[in-house]
Design goal:
single chain, Rossmann fold, N-(1-d-carboxylethyl)-l-norvaline Dehydrogenase, domain 2, 2 domains, 8 strands
Length: about 325
């Protein structure tokens, strides 16, 4: 595969960290940023992420400087015309996606696949406004921060071509990602479907007065979650055998929650004017965040992922 020219629509949390991923691999990357006034702040965050990698001694200052030269920021869709692969990372509404894809169809004659970073909208919905691109639209759902978390999940639409899927997998392999491919669309794809199944069970335990939130977090941190950083769930249960597993399923599954939507314990916080989490004015959620060192918290969030940044970084400047 010839080196892709990667386009990214949007330079927020997902788009910005995707730009770090692609440029640190030495791929020409063109980011579309609608509002020119946001560029200084977005570039400052882009540079901060590179400095973070230098400070962690993951890469050298010279490598970081060289990698930054692989980025261009444009404010017109025409600037993406040379891109062969585009990550779409904008507002999570069908209308916003439709507008974006219409512009990509107009301006990107060389694009072979478009990977939406949507966390919930299905590919067929996104392709409704641009039937001419339907064979190249699929979901490449990442987890934040994209340059640190190697997992991505692919979800194809009914008209996504095999060529688009194959090219996407080649691009993700070149970016050292670890993709999973869905055989058919599913709410939440794989990652959020699993994560929110566990979240539903955790909320039910708190709602029913079985335990407090910190007891659940303590359980996760010191029981089975560390196990699943080195082996998989199916590996674990295969190794344990299914006589005990079947018995436990019989006892536990009937008690698992069956919510029709956000449970009251969450909806109440979401609708509160002042108690909807760490970033609320009161800094109240299930925990009190008022005195939490958020920089130290961010370091704890990222700690398990630093070992995944282990690819070959650019040593020379980009020649556009």
């Amino acid at each position: 595969m010839n080196d892709p020219v990667i386009g990214i629509v949007g330079m927020g949390m997902i788009g910005g960290t995707t730009a770090v991923l692609s440029t640190s691999h030495g791929f020409k990357t063109v980011v579309y940023l609608r509002d020119p006034q946001k560029k200084p702040a977005r570039m400052a965050e882009f540079d901060r992420l590179y400095q973070q990698m230098v400070d962690r001694q993951v890469m050298t200052a010279d490598q970081a400087r060289a990698a930054r030269t692989y980025l261009r920021v444009v404010h017109e869709y025409e600037g993406l015309s040379a891109c062969t692969f585009v990550f779409e990372a904008i507002k999570e509404t069908p209308q916003a996606k439709w507008e974006c894809f219409r512009e990509l169809e107009r301006c990107c004659p060389n694009v072979r696949a478009i990977g939406s970073c949507s966390s919930s909208i299905q590919p067929d919905v996104m392709a409704e406004a641009t039937p001419g691109l339907a064979d190249r639209i699929l979901v490449t759902h990442p987890f934040f921060p994209v340059h640190m978390v190697p997992y991505m999940e692919l979800c194809m639409g009914s008209r996504t071509s095999e060529d688009a899927v194959a090219y996407t997998l080649q691009v993700l392999d070149a970016l050292d990602r670890k993709p999973s491919t869905l055989k058919k669309p599913n709410p939440g794809f794989i990652g959020n479907y699993l994560q929110f199944a566990l979240w539903a069970a955790a909320l039910k335990l708190v709602e029913d007065g079985v335990c407090e939130p910190h007891d659940i977090d303590n359980c996760l941190a010191y029981s089975f979650c560390p196990r699943y950083t080195s082996i998989g769930m199916f590996e674990h249960f295969d190794n344990g055998g299914y006589q005990l597993n079947a018995s436990t399923c019989d006892n536990v599954f009937p008690a698992l929650p069956r919510y029709d939507g956000a449970p009251g314990i969450v909806r109440e916080k979401a609708q509160s004017a002042d108690a909807w989490g760490a970033r609320s004015p009161s800094k109240q959620g299930f925990y009190n965040w008022a005195d939490v060192d958020m920089d130290a918290y961010a370091q704890r969030v990222n700690a398990p992922y630093w070992t995944f940044i282990n690819w070959k970084f650019p040593e020379t400047d980009c020649r556009w």
